[in-house]
Structures
1.
Amino acid sequence: MKQSGNDTISIFRRNGIAVVASNQFIRVFARSQMWIFLPLYLLEIRHVPYIIIGLVVFLMAISSLPLTLVAGGLIDKRGARSVIIVSNIFLGLLLLSLTLLIFENSNLYLIYLVLILSEPLMNIIGAADNVIVSDNSSVAERNSAFSIVRILQNLGFSLGPAIGGFIAGIGYGYIFLLTTVFSFSELFIYAKFLKKQQKKGENEKDDTVNMKPDIFKAFKDRPFFIVAILISLFYLILGQWGTTLTFFWKGFDNMSDFDIGLLYSVNGVVVTLGQLPVNRLLSKMEDITRINLGYIVYLFSFSLLPFFSGFIFLVLDTILITMGENIVSPSISTVISRIAPVNKRGQYFTSFQVLTGMVTPIAPVLGTFFLTVFSADLGLIWYPFTIIGTIFFLSFIPLWKKVNMREHNN
């Protein structure tokens, strides 16, 4: 179902969606700089090898699994607002500690520890945001609602990396200081403006839910399990957008920090301007078909990287990668929200993060492994990814057909 411009504005004005979208802009503006330039800080300032950086990213992702598993039940039982506020308090303190450690060039293991402790809190906040957006939109509105959030995210992403590239020239520590300040700003907005969600009807009956069994019930839900596993394996390829691509641009194309920031900003601009037009163009396409189409665009974009070079080509390739992102990203959240029972969305979203979190951390390890193996010619790293990605796509076609979508209306 197509959403008109007035409908989109109406969805955005809802309290939960407006607060989440606004905070996503703030969060991504600041954390995109940290996400992009942390690996470069470790590589260029602290001289950490590729593979060690990949392992640190892996440990950050793995560390989030136990707490994320419990958090789903907490979100459904205590409410997304309470979980978000408490998580933001602890996250802000950890980011402040990280900033001080980086300014002091402190022991690397202390920096790794703070990074590993921060990651679960970031994931919990993200899962709670998804629940808030789902609770404030109907099934028919859901793609538009998640797209609004993504547009605000990527408006932040269109500004953050370019500014981060400039700040990196002054000192990497100031990037982390900015992230800390903006994290406390998020906390203020959640506490001041996010209204407490009222449970209705069926939801009220489940207030005494036993968290552990319900979480594992989500794992036993066959359509959910199939979707989560297939998307997780896709992320082995999609996850090269980030650490691996940053190092590739630096080592193969000799891009400066500022150039890298501009390339990531191109991604943000294309999402901001292109997400809603893509949604309208593909409004009649099934969400699972969209996920597969976006994956193909991603895979093709990565496969071009060894054959061309220069800033103009990289801008065009980034635009193509971003079109794949525009196609696939809203549909992933929509598929999970449609499969999940209304009163179990927190558990399903966090269970999805747990399942994907068991596979996706391998992506940066795989990327940095190939960067190390093919260090003499970095262009070779995209050949194994193209082969693996093609095998995944062809092998998964029969499994997608087994997924039975269950729609739930608020």
2.
Amino acid sequence: MDIVPRRTTIEMMVRELGVVADLQAAEMVMTNTDLTLGFDATTQEGVHINSVHITSKYGCNVIAVDQLAGGTAEDYMHHIDDSVKRLAEVYSSFYMNLDYEACRRYGKGNPRWFVNFLDDEGLTRGLISRYRGNRLHILFHICGKYVEHYDRFVHFLQTATASCGGLQASILADFASDVARDEMNGVGMPVITVLERQYDRYFTMDITDRLKQETESARCHNIDAEQIMGMFSAAKNNAPNATLNYLSSKIQAQRNGVVDYLDSLDQEKRNKVIQISRTTRRKQRQPSRRRSLQIREDLSQ
């Protein structure tokens, strides 16, 4: 080759392929009913790495390979949460032309319309705790409030005028479903009763066609995660000075078959995907740098 691209150009192109891999994974999520999310972590040369992937009965897509400050449950939870949010951002930019950040801010905290609802109903503004996690006593408290004022919440979701890309309608559909009501009521059962019921199901449950369909995406092995970590080790050995963001994007592109995905698109969609990958990567660059600096600060303390 007479002309070889500069290193910065190659790095930029690989990062753009990472954005395309995000869109590809998001399409996989939106077009499959039953998926399984998995993650695996390893520490190599003092760097703690976590990978996140999703599997269907047809294959596996990598959605993130990043350095974490630690190996706690909270670290993994935030990493998985951020990875899924990034997929939503890329997907909404391409298909819905939505400002994902605006929608996210709309659904965060206590929006004005929800506060008005609480005031009109004579309910305290702190009725629903601002909590995201899996501590049973807090979930029990929140579900108890939802069950206590269930009809009020349903009426509010049916009549409220504020919306954001169908968010309100989606919340209503989930909240008013029989499954949601059963789950909210079930959270209030004693822990021992729940455990006994769960263990009993493993020995007495009937293997139905629906259960088989729901579990087809779940692997009975850990090979996908091991392959991703093997790819990271090989990439790090081949390019020890490469940034983690570059390596992550490269692994996503290789493991997910991004080039084949692009070849399968018609010319119009391919051009749109490439254009959005460029603009999205530029937007992601500064937040990615800030996260890296934050991790360095956390590790230095």
